[in-house]
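Hello Y.,

Per our agreement to keep a running log of every chain we model this quarter, I'm adding this entry. I've kept the format consistent with earlier entries: sequence first, then predicted structure.
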Amino acid sequence: LNHPRTMPIRRLALPLLLLVALSAACSAAMSQEPSEGARAPSARLQSGMDPTVRSAVTPEFLENKIKETEAASDIDEALKAKLTEQYRKALSQLEAESALEVKAAAFKQALETAPERTATIREQLTSRDAAAPPEAPVIPDDLSITELEQRLAKTQADAAAVGAKLSEPEKELEGNRTRPAEARQAIIEAKRELEGLEAELNLPPQEGQPEDLAKARRWAQEARRQSLRANILMLDQELLSQAVRVELLEAERDKAAIDLQGLKAEARTLETRLSALRKSKAEEAADKAKEIE
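Predicted structure for the entry above:
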């Protein structure tokens, strides 16, 4: 019979053993070398743009390999340098892939949201055109010189900000005139490189090459393939969203131009009022000086 006092200890022992086993499994998974999986040669040749074909290599795995290699005492320095170079190449390509995926998502979002934003701006501009000609800004008659100066400074600052904002869509529109041709050419070049990379991945490892170095080079090639594929998909999204993004830029430019006109008109009115008030104050001061004399 089990002693009653030993029962709680045994109940705690099983969860602790499970926790230790789970920790060991996680550590093994982190150090386990990734594999792309077995595929027939014909499937490999068609894998370049297949989004389901991905290397199991992750940035975390590569960072661990770099640390392990640098700390290893049983690897000569020349091989260490070659290994870390390939690991860093792979890591750089995975980072590039992530950045390209973010850009692709932004272009995709623009394709979905830009038309509505453009329509909203155009409606605002149409309502302005349909209304009566804009009147001069209303400026209270009882404003002091200090208050007029403050309002003028703010209006001038707003005008400068809108002017700077106006130059942004102008620059983007200028670049967009040649961008489609550049993006199509970039796609052609990326696909050409991708085809060459696929052919390299189908070659057997070089004879006499250390196994670890062969694996490292393959991981770098696989990461480069993913980066190229992400670049092509990003460029596709850029081209698909080109028209709606240009329309939005044109609408934003037109709105900024009208806003700038209004701010400049307000600044001119304020300057006129300020000049008149200063002149009036100066005349009042001169009259008082004469009275004192």
